[in-house]
Amino acid sequence: MAAIERAEEEAAESEAPFPLIVAAIDSVAPQAALAGRLLEDGAGLIAQEDALSLVRLLWLASTATTERTIGHCLLRLVEDSGLLRRLAAEPTLVPAFVEEVLRLTPPENLIQRRAVADASIDGRAVRAGDLVQICLPAANRDPAHYDVPDELRLDRAAAANLSFGSGIHQCVGGPMTRRVVAAAVAAFVQRFGDLAPLRLAGEVKWVHAMVVCAPREFRIAR
Question: Is the overall model pTM greater than 0.70, yes or no?
Fold first, then answer.
């Protein structure tokens, strides 16, 4: 019960800045007011509450997944000095590194999908309308799709992972997260690649919730 309460508190904290962000954007660029534009373009089709909900979705999609993935990437580099040196020497490998980190440690561990037809999964019947919970880290380590699935491989042949979902329900923030994280990692390896090996200065503080496990804070030193 305590874990659920902590998770709810963390979720509320992540949403708290949202009204301030919308207000700040609207005050700086009133002609591009986010919720207002949605209401104007969808006149008669969308309520104000729904417009705000869409803006909130875009904000969360472009921030929460990004910060978690940056944390996972930097923690990997601090713990593996050889990997840090290699990326510093071959920065073109950064996108492959980011993709592997996303595959192994998705921003969210669980997603839900509703079955649209009867099916069988590993011998278990799933009926149309059933809600199915998918464990993304397990799906992304399917040995039928990935050779040595538990290893981070920079030379891995391109294979789609499910870290941002797929199809019509794919996360709208996925492409931007990949670009922002790659830029952050590139800047980190350029700045600290020559200083390797790095080390953790103290314990890593983690975000532990029902669907999220990501580093919240850690300090590094030489």
Answer: yes
User: Nearest 5 degrees, angle CA 94-CA 99-CA 104?
Assistant: 125
DSSP 77-136: HHH-HHHHHHHHH-GGGHHHHHHHHHHHS-S-SEEEEE-SS-EEETTEEE-TT-EEEEEH
Q: Name the band, by pLDDT with cuts 50, 70 and 90, for residue 45.
A: low
List domains and CATH numbers for the chain. Answer: 2-221 (1.10.630.10)
58 neighbors 173 (Cβ within 8 angstroms): yes
CB 174 within 8 A of CB 194: no
Question: What pLDDT, on a 0 to 100 scale, did the predictor assign at position 43?
Answer: 57
pLDDT of residue 8: 47
- Give the pairing type, strands 124-126 and 220-221: unpaired
pLDDT in tens, 56-87: 676 666 688 899 999 999 999 999 999 999 99
Q: Is 208 helix (H, G, I), strand (E, B) or coil?
A: strand
Could you tell me where the DSSP H helices lie in 105-173? 136-139
CA distances for 29 relative to 19, 39, 56, 206, angstroms: 15, 16, 18, 36
H or E element at residue 77: helix 48-79
